[in-house]
Amino acid sequence: MDLFLHCCCGPCAAGSIPQLLESGYQPFCWFYNPNIHPFQEHKARRLAFVELMEQLGLEYAVNAEYPLEDWLRQVADAPEQRCAYCYRSRLEAAAAEAAQRGFKAYTTTLLVSPYQNQELIAEIGRDCAARNGIEFVFQDLRPGFREGQADARERGLYMQKYCGCIYSEKERYAKKPRPVKNEEGIKR
Ligand code: SF4
Q1: Residue 82 CA: which ligand 1 atom is closest?
Q2: What is the tens place of the pLDDT at every residue in 100-148?
Q3: By alpha-carbon position, which residue is closest to atom 2 of ligand 1?
Q4: What is the pLDDT of residue 73?
Q5: Distance between Cα 122 and ligand 1 center (Å)
């Protein structure tokens, strides 16, 4: 069965695609992720996705639109709840694109990550599917996560260090501030 596959990045696509093929799906892969900040990081992940597609010889397309200003405006008042908007903005766009391209079903590589809220992704995915007259395919892809990471590394793909948005970048690096010494050489 043909399946429209929203791809968040190369490594997650590398983990998801073998499992979907195994399940009998023929994926058409599509990149759209305005949640990846800053611009150079977005570019690095987009190019890694393209590299993987070329290596795998799969059909794919890229939407390189980058509405950073609008994305930040949407989450700035309640950044702790940002992931729901982040999922919806991408899945709504993916469902609409899938329907427009004539697909009857879509899914997302977000389902491969143990760091994402799979239940919420499935709920939003189904809602976006219904609004666009198609089906959301739910498959727990997490079992392929580690393998996908290893495969992506072997293929020489860019491996990101944080989820995507500037908030997640801060959480990744600001958690453990390095102890600094004062003038007396005492750590604080
Ligand atoms: S942490 Fe990840 S899923 Fe949540 S808003 Fe940021 S980029 Fe999106």
Answers
A1: 5
A2: 999 999 999 999 999 999 999 999 999 999 999 999 999 999 999 999 9
A3: 163
A4: 98
A5: 16
- The b/e string for 35-60 (b: 16+ C-beta within 10 A; e otherwise) is bbbeeebbebbbebbebbbeebebeb
- Token pair listed for 69: 């200003």
Q: What is the DSSP letter of 138?
A: P
Query: Which ligand 1 atom is nearest residue 167's CA?
Result: 6
Full set of structural domains in the chain with CATH? 2-174 (3.40.50.620)
Query: pLDDT tens for residues 162-179?
Result: 999 999 999 999 966 566
Binding site membership of 35 for ligand 1 (Cβ less than 6 Å): yes
CB 68 within 8 A of CB 135: no
| CB-based contact 142:153 (threshold 8 Å) | no
Testing ligand 1's pocket by substitution, the residue of 37, 80, 163 carrying the most ligand atoms inside 8 A of its CB is: 163
Cis check for the bond before 38: say yes or no (omega within 30 of 0): yes
Closest C-alpha to ligand 1, atom 4: 83
